[in-house]
Amino acid sequence: MKILKIDHLGIAVNSIDAGKDFWSGVLGLDFEGAETVAEQKVTTAFFPVGESEVELLESTAPDGPVAKYIEKRGQGIQHVAFRVENIDEALAELKEKGVKLIDQQPRIGAGGAKIAFLHPKATNGVLVELCQRD
Q1: How confident is the model at residue 46 (pLDDT cuts 50, 70, 90)?
Q2: Cβ neighbours of residue 98 under 8 Å, at least 6 residues apart?
Q3: Per-residue pLDDT tens over the stretch 53-72
Q4: Residue 75 carries which DSSP code?
Q5: pTM for this structure?
Q6: Locate the VOC domain: which residues (predicted)?
Q7: What structural domains does the chain harbor?
């Protein structure tokens, strides 16, 4: 598996608009735009930082994963995403190593990226996302 870089940090928020006040208004990061991913019950907003991004995640439904995260832990960093060269090879290697996966196969995430999540029980409590952008 070849990890290329940290692709983004996912931050769970109650409101992307309120989040923009800090990330753009205070820190001066450019707002790249928002996108709703209906399958994941989330609206995302990206703020580029060098070669990586900050991704704000706002739930679109009370039973969505981000809403459940905020209910349990409050707003804050929800996941770290690593860009990989080949997500299929990365998942196969992780399965071979016995790593517990949330996603056995990649799915499509924001921006059309192929994504897959590793289970936090396999990563010392950190939700890890693998991401491949073509």
Answers
A1: very high
A2: none
A3: 999 999 999 999 999 999 99
A4: S
A5: 0.91
A6: 5-133
A7: 3-132 (3.10.180.10)
